[in-house]
Amino acid sequence: MKIPEQTACGLMQKIVSGELSAARVAEEMTAYARELNPKTNAFVRFHDPSPSGDGAVSLPVALKDNICVRGCPATCGSRILSGFVSPYDAGVVERLKDSGARVIGSLNMDEFAFGSSTETSAYGPVRNPWDLGRVPGGSSGGSAAAVSAGQVVWSLGSDTGGSIRQPASFCGVVGLKPTYGRVSRYGLVAFGSSLDQIGPFTRDVADCALLLRIISGFDDRDSTSVDRPVPDFPRLLGRGVKGLRIGIPKEYFIDGIEPDVLGAVREAVEVFKKAGADVREISLPHTSYAVATYYIVATAEASSNLARFDGVEYGLRAVPDKARKAAIVDMYETTRQKGFGDEAKRRIMLGTYVLSSGYYDAYYLRAQKVRTLIKRDFEKAFEDCDLILSPTAPTTAFRIGEKTSDPIAMYLSDIFTIPANLAGIPAMSLPCGFDKAGLPVGLQLMARAFDEETLLNAAFVYEQKTGWHKERPSLKGA
Amino acid sequence: MIDQKTVHQIAALSRLHLEDAEAVRLGKDLEGIVAYIEALKALDVSDVKPTSHVLDVENVFRDDVPRPSLTNGEALSFSVESHQGFYKVPKVIE
């Protein structure tokens, strides 16, 4: 069995036919994941194999380290959660275990999902399997790199402003952010509660459809979970795209996109045209305001969500070094100073600022209003098209350290992914070629709320006609 | 303009202790980011309603029926310090 070449659906066929045993697959894949980890740093820990594995989908899976697994640590890539062990399974973990999956480990991430490069993790940066000197994207960089390198056949991440799609693009894998409300967030450590969604990373679209079906569905422990039927996504693939109206938003083709990215996306458009899609230009007029809107809404929510890390109920507790007896506020402030990294502090401070008295209307309320305009842009656009196509990110993977000293340059790498979170719509990234340096380029598709079906179906057509997903990374580079 | 006084005010509201060098660095970063988000002021939003929840759904409450949850001991087992079934913290009142 050549592990890096397998897909989940392929492996399951081999297990069903008796060619491979589920136990052997799990054993070999876990050994391979461990062996490769010093190169990628994608895993932050391996769990004792969960005792399940007899269900329909008995394959190993790994999860971003902000998803809780009973009896296992969940650190969100932060020192402040050191020592925490989850007393319960997240909703998605219950669904995975019910399907028979074996949760083999937790994956590296930007601290509390704050970042676009997985460099802010307390566990050190993840390395991109296509060039180990480059970032895998973020914040779900471990989830993307692990699938790309073949350490695991599929994984879960979370996406608040592009944290599934941008790393999928940088690592040459498929990543999907479901509609807000489609997948339970019970047991996902909250970042931006009006934006966060859990979603799959896979090597191809068929696996993505299957994993999405497994994790989707109503959960009354998440008040934003939506109670509606989950389509059988894998069975709905293969309908073709003849007559499908695909919109190309003119505002997404701006200066600053790397020429090779632009070229690959333009070629993808031609593939869809040849397959019979009706491609047309559309407009999303408020696109240029999305990043600013996001960094107000998301940091405001984050500053509130992260207030719970105070050294009392769980995780790190620190007191001032000075000998004098510390009062409770000194303990809070020292715990948070020592527990949070730079980017977490930046975002907590920014979020506190935009919510503070005298600034609330000028920043937070205004951003919520601009969010309405961005959402309306999409509603209007979807009157004229069924799917929106764009690059996932303006560039391919950048070098480790290249953008760490410039927060805004880092934030702008999510410029094309943020709008879908603000509008709550589903969106995915899939491989659409390589730049001159051999780094993967990602194609983003966005659809109407709860229309993951159209998204997956179009992605499947594209994948069948191109085959980019079959390329495997070198695992080389400084 | 985000001066050092403002930085320390925000830090206090955020319950973050900052060393002086850290406060200077964060102040500079925040100033840049706030200048960037000022771009939203170019839009007229006087007639626009704010979006706090993105889907047109109402909050759903589940039935008010007791379910098993963590025991007192389980909940306390994750804390650094507890005492007789309570969390223990440093002195609240001097």
* Helix/sheet category of chain A: alpha/beta
Please count the helical segments of chain A: 14
Q: Which class of the domain at 1-44 in chain B in CATH terms?
A: Mainly Alpha
Q: What oligomerization state is this entry in?
A: heterodimer
* Integer-rounded radius of gyration of chain B: 22 Å
Question: What's the CATH class label of chain A?
Answer: Alpha Beta
Structural class, from helix and strand content of chain B? Answer: mainly alpha
CATH level-4 homologous superfamily of chain A: Amidase signature (AS) domain
Separate helix tally of chain B:
3
Enumerate the spans of chain B where pLDDT stays under 50 for 5 or more consecutive residues: none
Defining key terms:
heterodimer; A: 478 residues; B: 94 residues; mainly alpha; Histone, subunit A; 2 strands; 35% helix; 4% strand
What does this molecule look like?
The complex is a heterodimer of chains A (478) and B (94). With 478 residues, chain A is of the alpha/beta class. Chain A is built from 14 helices and 11 strands. Chain A has helices at 8-16, 22-40, 91-98, 141-149, 165-171, 205-215, 259-274, 290-305, 328-339, 342-355, 360-384, 407-411, 418-423, 452-466, and strands at 43-46, 60-64, 102-107, 155-159, 174-177, 197-202, 245-249, 278-282, 387-391, 427-434, 440-447. Chain A has an 11-stranded mixed beta sheet, with helices on both faces. In chain A, helix 4 (141-149) packs parallel to helix 5, helix 8 (290-305) crosses helix 10 (342-355) and helix 8 crosses helix 11. The radius of gyration of chain A is 21 Å and the shape is globular. The two termini of chain A are 29 Å apart. By secondary structure, chain B is mainly α. Chain B has a domain at 1-44: Histone, subunit A. Chain B is 35% helix and 4% strand. Chain B has helices at residues 4-13, 20-37, 72-76, and strands at 82-83, 86-87. Classes of the chains: A alpha/beta (478), B mainly alpha (94). The interface between A and B is large, with 73 and 51 residues.
